[in-house]
Amino acid sequence: MLPVRPGGDAPQRYRGERLGLPQSGSGSLATFGVRFWALIVDCIASALVASLVVAGRGGDLAHRLPGSWSLIPLAVDYVVGLLLGGQTLGMHLIGLKVVRVERAGRIPLPDIMVRTVLLFLLLPAVVLDRDGRGLHDRFTGTAVVRA
Asked: Phi and psi (nearest 5°) for 23?
């Protein structure tokens, strides 16, 4: 059975219809799997950047691993990337973009920061609504779409 839109008149035929997004192609909602791969690319890139910073430290291999230092370049990637272009490095390479769905325009900095913090908590990112958006997207009125 298909979910009923808040208006109550017709069932939702595809993910993103309630948001006014197309069913497929550019501007359609990205699937969880594609979003996950973009996050993996971002995490790997952030770990590489952080490893450059900690590489000069002495000690064994465990002391030279980036560890939680990689969260800093990841946060910078998300905040600066979404502020300037609506996408992180991983999203750019995979072909995704974060857009506002509740009103037009750029995503404001406070929303970007809240979205990033919620993403770092991980749970809001894996709890999805019927459109496939994470709680961090719902809370900030955004959606990850195909670019």
From this structure: -70, -35
Residue 23 lies in a domain: no
**How confident is the model over 48-94, as pLDDT tens digits?**
888 887 766 666 555 656 667 788 999 999 999 999 999 999 999 99
Residue 27 lies in a domain: no
**Cα 83 from Cα 75, distance rounded (Å):** 12
**How far is it, in rounded angstroms, from Cα 144 to Cα 16?**
11
If 0-12 CB within 10 Å is exposed, 13-18 middle and 19+ buried, where does residue 79 land? middle
Rounded distance between C-alpha atoms, residue 51 and residue 45, angstroms: 10
CA 88 from chain centre, in angstroms, equals 8
Task: Give the number of residues written for the chain.
Answer: 147
What's the pTM? 0.81
Nearest-10 crossing angle of helices 109-120, 71-84? 150
Q: How many domains does the chain have?
A: 1
Collect contacts of 115-118 with beta carbons under 8 A, ≥24 apart.
115/78, 115/82, 115/139, 115/140, 115/142, 116/75, 116/78, 116/79, 116/82
Q: What is the span of the domain harbouring residue 138?
A: 32-146
